[in-house]
Amino acid sequence: MSTLNEIVHRISSSVNGGNTTDEMRFDSLYIESKIHTARASILSATSRQTMFDRINEACVQVYSVELLETQVEADCDVIRFPCPTVVRLDDRHDGFMYVGHVNGQKPFIRIRSNYTALSMHSLFQKEKEIVWDYLADYNGQYYINIYKNTKQRKLLVRAMFNDPTQVPNYRRDVDEYPIDATLENDIVNAVVTELLRQMVRTPDTTSDSMDTVPNRPN
Amino acid sequence: MTGAQFYTLLQQKIDKAYSAYIDTAKADRIIEDTIYRLCERLYRELDSQKEYDELWSLLIKDEVQTVSNPYIDLSSLSRTYMHLFRVACTYKTLLGSLGRVTTGSGPYSTVFTSSGHTARVGDNIAVISVTGTVTAITKTTFTVTSATSPDASAAVYLVRTFEASPYFSDRKRDVYHTPTIFNPKYQIQNRAVSTANNKALYLFPQADGIVIDYFAQPTAATGHIFTSTGATAITAYTEKFLYRLADECVMTYAGQVRDTELRQSSAQDIAINP
Asked: Most buried of the four, A85, A94, B16, B41, by CB within 10 Å?
């Protein structure tokens, strides 16, 4: 399939009559952000229709992470692995497909959202299996929190992420963007439609603190 | 066609009433003036292969330059810069001072150890001045093939080149216009040093090198500006271009002597044989 750059050029050439220049009205990064959000929206809408179907593996990314001892807080019951945000599929499901042992064969159990995770009375305190949760922190970062095993240092994650370029081992210049051909077509159509809608309005290129539209009296 | 032959052609095309006033010195000035104007006009109309063919000797393609500042002075290019066609920026990304084992005797094969690396088959790798290509990867290693043996401990760099686009720092201020190494931007600015003004190409972010296509100025040094007494064949232009140039020279001359009739007839010649 295509790299992110190739999709950007598909879109930019579509709104420019099949030709591209290096002075396009829309920046590449702007189109990229539109591609990411369109992908998440379409994935979410599709999975709501067919929640019991298999997710296409082409949309899934995998990465493993290994913490250094200096990254682990001493005497803490929780081991935290940084993880980019994942797409929301519906009000109960998100884009995580696998969180567990790096051999890919041993998924850890996810505790319920809003669970009283660290309470002495929590049900999961009686669990013997490793459990995990996905939480935001005060520093604006998101982490997979691992409970019940303070020696955990390696983790394998398979998921559908909101911004695939944020996944640590993703090379945006050479790696395929994580979508299948059908989804690529849907994304291109969605973004092109949105850009053409924006192009109906003449851009304000006059810096006069007003919404000055060229060739039109204000 | 030589310069002297071109001068004869020019005399034939100019009204006999004026031909006595076209000496070789005056013809040289008209030729130089007209070459600049005609090349610029053709440059502005560059939209088909035909025009590219005519200006072939002024089109500089894929010139590689090393960059060690946030800018590169355009005077450092191999030819006199006039207009930009395209710029691509080369960036070296530090992979680290990785462990390595080199085998072979040219080509050399070096296995670099790096947990969590993002090297891909086909990547270009540089160790000081030795460059090689990634031919195989595993989760914790990547193998590089190179013509010469890389240094045993020096830092390893991933070398990548990305197409650059113009930077409108005075117009576009949104966050999406921010340059990155994947979307580098360039801007031609003045770089003042004391009283000197240098035409410089600024690169954002600062690059390690550029690949540039540009339109060069016609110069006598490279045979683009010729004299009316020249005895050597003019090889920088096609014959068709030279005949068009003769018509344009007549046009220039007619403008100088304010001969409306000659100006109109030369304009018709140009329209018939563009």
From this structure: A94
Of A23, A28, A33, the CB nearest to B183: A28
Instruction: Sort out which chain A residues have CB atoms less than 8 A from B86's CB and list them.
Output: 22
Q: Are B251 and B270 in contact (CB under 8 A)?
A: yes
Q: Which two tokens stand for residue A48?
A: 């709501």
Contacting residues of A for B166, CB less than 8 Å apart: 22-23
DSSP codes joined into one string, A39-103 = HHHHHHHHHHH-TTSPPPGGG-EEEEEE--GGGSPTT-S-EEEE---B-B-SSS-BSEEEEE-TT
**Cβ atoms of residues A132 and A70 within 8 Å:** no
The ipTM assigned to this model is 0.81
- Residue B108 burial (CB < 10 Å; 0-12/13-18/19+)? middle
Counted domains in chain B: 2
**Residue B93, domain member (yes or no):** no
Residue B250 lies in a domain: yes
pTM for this one? 0.85
Spatial separation of the C-alpha atoms in residues B145 and B133, rounded to whole Å: 5
Domain of residue B121 covers: 98-154
Question: Does B228 reside within a domain?
Answer: yes
Is the Cβ of B122 closer than 8 Å to some Cβ of chain A?
yes
**Hey, where are the domains in chain A?**
1-55+171-201, 61-159
Distance in Å, alpha carbon of A58 to nearest chain B alpha carbon: 19
Full strand arrangement of the beta sheet holding B165-166: B71-73, B196-204, B185-193, B165-166
Query: Model confidence over A58-74: pLDDT tens digits?
Result: 999 999 888 888 888 88
Number of H helices, E strands in chain B: 6, 13
A106-138 pLDDT tens trace: 999 888 665 555 555 566 666 778 889 888 889
Angstroms from A106 CA to nearest CA on chain B: 20
Pick among B115, B165, B188 to test the A interface (most A CBs inside 10 A): B165
Distance of alpha carbon A98 from alpha carbon A107, whole angstroms: 6
CB A214 within 8 A of CB A208: no
Yes or no: say if A20 and A189 are a contact pair by the CB < 8 Å rule. no
In a domain, B171, yes or no: no
How would you list the strands of the sheet with A61-66, edge to edge?
Answer: A61-66, A154-159, A96-100
Residues of B in contact with A64 (CB under 8 A): 116
